[in-house]
Amino acid sequence: MSDVIQWAAMTPEQRDRLVAEKIMSWQPVMCKAADPDINRYTWLEWNDDSQWCTWCGVRETWASGNEIEHRALPHPAYTQSMDSAWQVLQEMVRRHNKDGRTKDFMQFAENMLEVGGWDSSDAWSEIYPAHEIFTMAAKWTPGRICIAALKAVDVDLEAQ
Ligand SMILES: [Zn+2]
User: Fold this and answer.
1) What's the 107 CA to ligand 1 centre distance in angstroms?
2) For 33, 69, 130, 157, which has the most beta carbons within 10 A of its beta carbon?
């Protein structure tokens, strides 16, 4: 028995991690600069205040006196940016007719129609489909796209 995941109680970073792992098959990849054979200063930039790695993003102020400790590359902020959420949408669409995962795509499509308030019984959507499609798509936010994808792959999620 697993507990239901409460979306509202999660931080944006926890939500992004859930999408990365459950949808995008994300695995941590260590910063290239952590390789001892590579000059550790290769990807470093600095200003008067601090230094940072342009690859993994880790930052240290000069005042801290700490050396840069390279880390795994961060995954995209799927629930916080439309650029990244669109990768989730494309991943779900790719599942159509692929590896027996058409069900994921079909359920995702249903969820997205529901989010947008699509009413197929409404004659208006037949007469003016473009109006309905764009009105519906305008309601899609990064968070809603990610929730629709997670629910499509049977993640037990409680979200408004
Ligand atoms: Zn790094």
Assistant:
1) 39
2) 33
Gap from CA of 59 to ligand 1 centroid (Å): 9
Please, what is the end-to-end C-alpha distance for the chain in angstroms? Answer: 22
Q: Would you list the domain boundaries of the chain?
A: 5-26+76-158, 28-74
Each of the 160 residues of the chain gets a pLDDT tens digit; together they read 568 999 999 999 999 999 999 999 999 999 988 887 877 677 889 999 999 999 999 999 999 999 889 999 989 999 999 999 999 999 999 999 888 899 999 999 999 999 888 877 777 767 777 888 888 899 999 999 999 999 999 899 998 7
**How far does the centroid of ligand 1 lie from the alpha carbon of residue 114, in Å?**
41
Place of tokens 């009105």: 135
Distance of CA 88 from the midpoint of ligand 1 (Å): 26
- Is the full-model pTM beyond 0.70? yes
